[in-house]
Design goal:
Layout lengths: L4 E2 L4 E2 L4 E2 L4 E2 L4 E2 L4 E2 L4 E2 L4 E2 L2 E4 L4 E2 L4 E4 L13 E4 L4 E2 L4 E3 L8 E4 L4 E2 L4 E2 L4 E2 L4 E2 L4 E2 L4 E2 L4 E2 L4 E2 L4 E2 L4 E2 L4 E2 L7 E4 L4 E5 L1 H6 L4 H16 L4 H11 L4 H11 L8
Parallel strand pairs: 1-4, 2-5, 3-6, 4-7, 5-8, 6-9, 7-10, 8-11, 9-12, 10-13, 11-14, 12-15, 13-16, 14-17, 15-18, 16-19, 17-20, 18-21, 19-22, 20-23, 21-24, 22-25, 23-26, 25-27
Antiparallel strand pairs: 27-28
Helix pairs in contact: 2-4
Length: about 260
């Protein structure tokens, strides 16, 4: 294998699949069900276990524990469950990421180009999209979905089965118990929608016209006093549709836990 570097104190199971360019640091453990893609960098004292597949160019910093059994009372050691991590992800110190459960479909999935900071936790059956950020000590309970470009502030906690929409941002120390709408900025205990995520949308190059439509839609949804159903009816009648507004409407209509106010 080309450019494969394994520190002499690391323990790598002979059945683990390692690609070229992999670097495994001191005292780390790689179990037999693990697949590491090209140029994966594993720091010291990391544990990568379970049936875990990791894409190329991912970085794991000191003490990360990845692919461990879900913290679910119904889980059995014989269950056939997985963790899949895509490309170009950075997993910082002491992050914990669990595999899925049979009840939740058997797989925890993390996409590409995500940053998961120190001491963050990703529980069983979570699905994280692309370009997401979890700041220090942010925690996801089971079955949480993060759409692309979602950002969670430090010390925030997300209730199980909650969704965070595309380009949403959650402030630090926030308790999230209902779905966070796309393109929103929210904070609080429990979370409260403050306004649209203007800076995030600008960075994502959302057209100015779409941003203005979303701003009007947010006023109708969160400031008009209308019920969700009547607010959406008014939006569909009065505002010009764009892809971003269509996604916001679909997200709200498909919510099972309700929408953060």
């Amino acid at each position: 294998m080309e450019n494969l570097t394994i520190h002499k104190s690391a323990i790598v199971h002979p059945e683990a699949k390692l690609s070229s360019g992999v670097n495994i640091g001191p005292y780390s453990i790689i179990d037999g069900g693990v697949t590491l893609g090209i140029n994966v960098q594993v720091g010291s004292h990391c544990v990568i276990t379970g049936q875990t597949t990791i894409g190329q160019n991912c970085k794991f910093f000191t003490g990360a524990v990845v692919g461990s059994a879900p913290q679910d009372m119904k889980h059995s050691a014989e269950d056939n469950v997985w963790l899949h991590i895509g490309d170009n992800n950075t997993i910082r110190e002491y992050v914990t990421i669990n595999a899925g459960t049979l009840e939740g479909g058997g797989k925890t999935v993390i996409g590409n180009n995500n940053l998961i900071m120190t001491y963050a936790h990703v529980a069983h059956d979570c699905v994280i999209g692309n370009h997401c950020i979890m700041a220090n000590n942010a925690s996801l309970a089971g079955h949480v979905i993060l759409e692309d470009n979602a950002v969670i502030g430090g010390l925030s906690a997300v209730h199980q089965f909650v969704r965070l929409g595309r380009l949403s941002i959650v402030g630090g120390c926030t308790r999230i118990i209902q779905d966070v709408p796309p393109f929103s900025m929210c904070v609080g205990y429990p979370a409260e929608v403050i306004r649209t995520n203007i800076v995030g949308m600008q960075r994502a190059r959302i057209p100015a016209a779409s941003m203005e439509v979303l701003k009007k839609a947010f006023r109708i949804i969160f400031r008009s006093g209308l019920t969700r159903t009547h607010a959406l009816e008014r939006i569909e009648k009065e505002l010009k549709m764009c892809p971003e507004l269509e996604h916001l409407i679909f997200f709200i209509k498909t919510s099972k836990r309700g929408i953060t106010d």
